[in-house]
Amino acid sequence: MNSNRDKVRRSQEIAYKFMSAMAGDLPGFEEATRALFAGDHEQFHSLISSWPVDVRDYVRKLSASAFQREHAT
């Protein structure tokens, strides 16, 4: 179904917009963006681990649905 893909894409876009505004100058931003859109959960979380706690935690919340691909049918 497309609904799961739409949910993943929406989560990616929302997380990316926030990341661009709040973390665009932080280390690993570009690599984290690539990992986000590639669905690479481990790499993404590794790259954002050094970001300020409030920014990192909110990005994790916004991006949670972006890593649901393995459950897609």
From TrEMBL:
Top-level lineage group: Bacteria
One Pfam assignment: DUF2239
InterPro entries: DUF2239 (IPR018715)
Protein name, entry field: DUF2239 family protein
Organism: Candidatus Chloroploca mongolica
